[in-house]
């Protein structure tokens, strides 16, 4: 049995398992071997559950032998970001304070993955409490970008991004409050989707900021992201932000037609201060979509000028509230960068928070007006390439800039609006992947996937880093 199968997308692995050419136990063993082999270098995993995973895989194989096939995630091994609860097992949030925390219940998404037949491999490294974009953890060590080990993988779902692109898990989940699915997906060369707010229930995921948090897939292909979203989407009354929506088959709705599609381009915000190699690759794909039949329309969203302020005040205030009592008890348990942010979270006034929500409402209204005229909006995912681990400096066209001030500029607006946003690889620059962002209408992930599929075919990106092969 060749180990190359750990590098196959879920859509292909599912067919092999369904037709009994590959067992879940065989695949799970191969992925665990790959993960254990590379983890000393990449540090994507916080913990493994080898024994439990192999037992779960054996159960999935038995069900297939009995003719009880659950669907494309049946028997597929999958590691999970360590702020999503597996009932009865430790979930650390990559923190010291919660290093021994055990939840009673599975998160909603975990229960849905188990129902779909997924096999859980272990928990993935992340930026502490999901607040950060470098994934340089003071408690569990930095995650390294598999394309260049001296570079960050992006965050906060950095372990998730690194693990998928290194073949240490076929697919995974990330969480996203200001870009934490899309940032590492761009940095690691993956398809990462932040779904519409409310489409995927967040019960059992430790919150960073209630009104901004999302859970979504991080995968090697568009089809794989659609498969995972299909499994985890759905209402749960235990999450007050969860929405009742029509159940869709996202994979079946992916088609080849761009006829009649209108793509919006917002030049004044989304293409301002972008590193030239990134802008070039994104614009090339926009031109490709136009050549295939899409119409390109320039749009304006003036409220974007206030989005960074609104995102900052909202996230600071909500995160500061969540951690207020814990921070008072023992601030020394927090990493230095996170402690500072949580302490800053006590500073915004009620007036400032409410002003930020007024800006947010205006932003949502302007996005809706634009999306009434176009099908999606396309932008770079990041304006910068991944920087060196331990550095707070990024480069834009040869000029040094503060990483944190720039890295969430293009991702944060979709958290404020709650609109679906997907990052997809569009090529390489300086040996590192570059992502393009596709922003869609609320609950119209199907159109986002369709546009992304065209980009995927056009680019032909090799989503596996050489270290994995």
UniProtKB/TrEMBL annotation:
It comes from Wohlfahrtiimonas larvae. This is Amidase. InterPro entries: Amidase (IPR000120), Amidase_dom (IPR023631), AS_sf (IPR036928). It comes from the Bacteria. Transmembrane segments: none annotated. Pfam families: Amidase (PF01425). Residues 26-448 form the Amidase domain. Belongs to the amidase family.
